[in-house]
Amino acid sequence: MEIAARISSKGQVTVPKAVRDALGLGEGDDVVFRVEGDRAVLARTPEFLSLAGTVAVPAAKRSVAWDEVIRSTRAKRAATAR
Fold first, then answer.
1. What is the rounded CA–CA span in Å between residue 14 and residue 32?
2. pLDDT tens, 19-47?
3. HEC assignment per residue over the chain
4. Which residues, in sequence order, are bridge partners of residue 36?
5. Cα pseudo-dihedral 66, 68, 69, 74, rounded to 10
6. Dihedral-angle region of residue 65 (phi above 0 means left; psi in -120 to 50 means alpha; beta otherwise)
7. Residue 15 burial by Cβ neighbours in a 10 Å radius (0-12, 13-18, 19+)
8. Is the pTM of this model over 0.90?
9. How far, in Å, are 31, 47, 55 from residue 52 at the CA level?
10. Domain map (residue ranges) of the chain
11. What pLDDT is recorded for position 49?
């Protein structure tokens, strides 16, 4: 599907209804633009909670507090950067 749209003087583009319908977009939905060469791809942004379970978490990290995971990760990165 190719549908043209015009950029306004404020740099805004209205996403055509056919595109909104095809992507299931509605008012308040978030989208992401990805630049690929000389093209930009518009995609629906996944809901944060829908990503749950998509990344394997090592058993040793499953009961660790998030603050500790961040602190530990930063410390390891700092040590390898030296």
1. 14
2. 999 999 999 888 888 888 999 988 888 76
3. CCCCCCCCCCCCCCCCHHHHHHHCCCCCCCEEEEEECCEEEEEECCCHHHHCCCCCCCHHHCCCCHHHHHHHHHHHHHHHHC
4. 39
5. 130
6. beta
7. middle
8. no
9. 19, 10, 7
10. 56-81
11. 64
